[in-house]
Design brief:
The chain is about 45% helix and about 15% strand. The protein has three domains: about 160 residues, P-loop containing nucleotide triphosphate hydrolases (Rossmann fold), CATH 3.40.50; about 180 residues, Arc Repressor Mutant, subunit A (Orthogonal Bundle), CATH 1.10.10; about 110 residues, 3-Layer(aba) Sandwich (Trna Endonuclease, Chain: A, domain 1). It is an alpha/beta fold and about 475 residues long. The chain contains 22 helices and twelve strands. Helix 4 runs parallel beside helix 6, helix 13 crosses helix 14 and helix 16 runs antiparallel to helix 19.
Amino acid sequence: MFVGREEEVAALRATIGSRAPKLALIYGRRRIGKTALIRKAIGKDPALFIEGLENRPTQAQIASFLDQASHQLRRRLPSVTTWHDALLALDKALAGRRMVLVLDEFQWLANYRQELVATLKMVWENHLSRKPGRTLILCGSIASFMTTKVLKSSAFYGRTDLVIHLQGFKLAETARMLPRRGAQEVLDAQCFTGGVPKYLELLADAPSISLGMEKHAFRPDGYFVEEYDRIFTSHFGGNADFQNLIRALAAAPYGLNRRDLAAAADVDEGGMLTQRLYDLEAAGFISSQRPFDKGAETRLLRYHLSDPWISFYHAFMRTRLRRIREAGRKDLFTAIRQTGAFRSWMGRAFELVCMRHSDLIAHHIGFDAVDYDVGPWFRAPRGGVKGVQIDLAYDRTDGVITLCEMKRQTAPLGRAVITEVERKSNILRQFFPRRTIQPVLVLDGQVTRDLEAAGYFFRILQATELMK
């Protein structure tokens, strides 16, 4: 079942439908649905799919390229040993036909080097693109390679007609992926998976989302048990720095600055740390945050773990892998769900869901037509002013700061939350005395009559509204 991606499909179809030669680049983490998107957009148009081989040398990649092309074109391409000759052989075999050429897992085809990038650019411009109606789609799961070595390379810089960074589903799409599930299970699935389509497919077939996680994450043969290693081997090979950085951030749910992160991960704070952080952020595993009133170069920049599934793995699976693989208790996840640690994690996971839907929250509150900067705002204690951590706030050009408090809980939320939010509001007023502070509550749950009657919040927005 293909769900969502309407804008991406429309853009790719328009690119494919042009008679002029077009070049599209699509990237995103593994399991995110890149190939499914491409096949949906291509439909019945003639297409050639070539997929790279993971961790194989150049000659093996070229041989596989020729074999795949020969099989699909039903015409044996000659055995050659260079990418230049292989691409020319493909052009000759196509014999002027209109065709969509898809090079999937392009970083593997290229062996993470730019040799193929430069050669492909030359053969595309001088040969393959000379026939009307041809589209070249480069698709990859290693975002840092696809952006720095392809998109921003001297070969293809400014020459791509369409770029799609495919990300996980938002709540509305997850709800469509799980049409028979209630809002509670849809939100659970979003918190666990981050809207990764492959993961949602696995959970969709289970009697419940919780039982699906029990089966796929806490059984010896569960799909998720080896998934973390598969992801990191694919993205970063055997480099331990990446996993050390992820582990450090997993232990600090509200983030770390660069210096503290380097110390916690036992990684040198030199230039390679910048590259490591870029690679992790490009992959979508971590995010950098700055207070909304600070520039990009601020020393207050923090990094936090933003991939929900990787966060879940570190919180509840990594330290239990031995028990999981030894086929121990069959109700392990059921027991985990009863713990305070799980409830705390779910609260933070809900906050991350809300932060990813910041544009939709602005729409529902009614100021999406106003220009704004959105993000967290945090200050350490200083000069008698208490520290504060605000995870989602909108600095609006109409003189208003919308402060969002995000809560997910089973018991009705009472007036105590007003005291909590008012403390944050008072600190904001000290730094922004000319602004109006507008408190908003984003909630998955119920509120008490006292809280509702207080009229403190400008708006109480239910999570279910974000699913529409």
